Amino acid sequence: MNLILLGAPGAGKGTQAEVICAAKGIPAISTGNILREAVKNGTESGLKAKKYMDAGELVPDEVVIGILKDRISEPDCKDGFILDGFPRTVPQAEALESMGVRIDRVVEIYVPDEKIAKRLGGRRVCEACGNSYHVDYKPTKVEGVCDACGGRVVTRKDDEPATVLERLRVYHEKTAPLKDFYEARGKLKTVVGQEAVEDTTRLMLAALE
Ligand SMILES: [Zn+2]
User: Fold this and answer.
1) pLDDT tens digits, residue range 95-111?
2) How is residue 60 annotated by DSSP?
3) How confident is the model at residue 195 (pLDDT cuts 50, 70, 90)?
4) How much distance in Å is there from the Cα of 132 to the middle of ligand 1?
5) Domain presence at residue 141
6) Which pLDDT tens digit goes with each residue over 19-31?
7) Distance 148 CA to ligand 1 centre (A)
8) What's the CATH code of the domain at 200?
9) Using 50, 70 and 90 to split pLDDT, how confident is the model at 123?
10) In this structure, is residue 12 part of a structural domain?
11) 171 part of a folded domain
């Protein structure tokens, strides 16, 4: 099954992608990773991409999709794949379709913005050892101090309230319209993200049946 996971930043796509990979025996493909790999390996599309990157320009969708097509023609994708982080816009989904990449199912993990803001806004990370915490779900024993190493525990720039709001705004403006795009093609299923990861996983696996 060729699958796309949709969801706002912080909705838990990464975790669910891992679970589905294990359950279905299909790889999760991140366009960021395969782009870097293609450039490193000097493939034809990789060299094209490199030209744009060296010029400090965005790699065009057609080039990214070319690299993606190379990747999904590899044997480990014979039973399908999960796309992680692509497409992010309707024009990218259109390009994917017109370049002949078949998508069977699109699962949206829906979590209301207020919950996402709480989840992401409460994340903390240790500056010294990288351990992660959450003020509500996994607090440090002493506020602001890492349990593991005594380092200072801080909020990442990505998780600061203004940044979270901006990431959510961009998601709603650019990425959420993909729901209508795939709904119109009869491919969209929505799973409501639950408090416990395993509960979301159960719903997710049901949505893939
Ligand atoms: Zn630490």
Assistant:
1) 999 999 999 999 999 99
2) P
3) confident
4) 8
5) no
6) 999 999 999 998 8
7) 5
8) 3.40.50.300
9) very high
10) yes
11) yes
